[in-house]
Automatic annotation (TrEMBL):
Keywords: Acyltransferase, Amino-acid biosynthesis, Cytoplasm, Methionine biosynthesis, Transferase. PANTHER family: HOMOSERINE O-ACETYLTRANSFERASE. Gene3D superfamilies: 1.10.1740.110, alpha/beta hydrolase (3.40.50.1820). One of its GO terms (biological process) is homoserine metabolic process. Substrate binds at residues 225, 354. This is Homoserine O-succinyltransferase. It catalyses: L-homoserine + succinyl-CoA = O-succinyl-L-homoserine + CoA. Homodimer. It comes from Chitinimonas arctica.
Length: 380
């Protein structure tokens, strides 16, 4: 592999073990837990240049770089993070964490339940965004980070970033919430429920304890991913890439995969089902459904944000119909009503919800300019 001066290069995951119990919002408690994380860049002397990256539904701690020279894919936000990139690791100390309930090393349904010595499976408690924020704060304490220069996330990650400013207002200088929303609409909850139903109905699900049967509900997880994937893309983007292209010269008059878009979706579903855990998918979508910071403030988002102390950047994309710009504007209006400092940008893009992972020039320039100011502000 040729050395890319803008890449963080070869990176290694790290594991933080916590022996103290973690109370959860559901009323349950994890007796102990571990978090997988990665860091890039160097923490400066006054520990003011730390940036937390919160992952979306299927993400994890591997945000940038590669684990091995022959890795086919880099971390999931490698386009954004590295020396000279918008989240510049020559100035920032960047932390990526795999959330509780995940399937990439952090404690989750696949982990052993210390009470039984068997995988948690269906017994793993439901976790919500605020639980993740509390766990992330424990890791921040472990790393000696009292205050983040910025907490950044797209989609479900943006919800975590917003929640950080409510739960720990004095620990966040800047909050960047991208392609996100202050809570899900009924339509979004409906999409999640269809996805979960596909998993729950898989004969290999076994009530969530499929690990003990040596199987996995891949058919249900595949369907869930196919459904989700459609909502992450725009009709314009799909039309431009696939149109009505057929895999052969004519109609086959059957129910196989005939159109290129069908083949693409099935491939994406199979690939995802091979590497992701169905119980984690259930947990992550439920955390999305439950997210509503205004719930404990009489339904008032401005009241929920009243005590926040961060400066905010809210970014939306024109073709994102899963979390449309109108949902981002709800966050912006609530911040204005709460008399907070907020900037808003609506980016032209054909990439739909997934645009926050893409390299649209105006988006990259916006992130670069904003984060340069953050770096200057903290003396990074």
């Amino acid at each position: 592999m040729n050395h890319d001066p803008h890449s963080v290069g070869i990176v290694s995951p790290q594991c933080a073990e916590f022996d103290e119990p973690l109370p959860l919002q559901s009323g349950a408690s994890l007796p102990s837990y571990r978090l997988m994380y990665e860091t890039y860049g160097t923490l400066n002397a006054d520990r003011s240049n730390a940036v937390l990256i919160c992952h979306a539904l299927s993400g994890n701690h591997h945000v940038a770089g590669r684990h091995h020279a022959d890795d086919k894919y880099p971390g999931w936000w490698d386009t954004m993070i590295g020396p000279g990139k918008p989240i510049d690791t020559s100035r920032f100390f960047v932390v990526g964490i795999n959330n509780l309930g995940g399937c990439h090393g952090s404690t989750g349904p696949m982990s052993l339940n210390p009470a039984t010595g068997k995988p948690w499976g269906a017994a793993f408690p439901v976790v919500v965004v605020n639980d993740w924020v509390h766990a992330q704060a424990c890791l921040a304490d472990r790393l000696g980070i009292e205050k983040w220069a910025a907490v950044i996330g797209g989609s479900l990650g943006g919800m975590q970033a917003l929640r950080w400013t409510v739960t720990f207002p004095q620990r966040v200088r800047h909050c960047l919430t991208i392609a996100s929303a202050p809570k899900l609409t009924a339509q979004n909850i409906a999409f999640n429920d269809v996805a979960r139903t596909a998993i729950l109905a898989d004969p290999d699900f076994h009530g969530g304890d499929y690990y003990q049967h040596g199987v996995a509900p891949k058919r249900g997880l595949k369907l869930a991913r196919m459904l989700g994937h459609i909502t992450y893309l725009s009709d314009e983007g799909l039309g431009g890439k696939f149109g009505r292209q057929l895999k052969s010269d004519g109609y086959q008059f059957g129910y196989g995969s005939e159109f290129e878009i069908e083949s693409y979706l099935r491939y994406q579903g199979d690939r995802f089902a091979d590497v992701f855990d169905a119980n984690t998918y259930l947990l992550m979508t439920k955390a999305l459904d439950y997210f509503d910071p205004a719930r404990h403030f009489g339904g008032s988002l401005p009241a929920a944000l009243a005590a926040t102390a961060a400066k905010f950047l809210v970014v939306a994309f024109t073709t994102d119909w899963r979390f449309s710009p109108e949902r981002s504007k709800e966050t912006v209006q609530a911040l204005l009503d709460a008399k907070k400092s907020v900037s808003y940008a609506e980016i032209e893009s054909v990439h739909g919800h997934d645009a926050f992972l893409m390299t649209d020039p105006s988006y990259m320039q916006l992130m670069d300019a904003y984060l340069r100011r953050v770096a200057d502000e903290v003396g990074a």
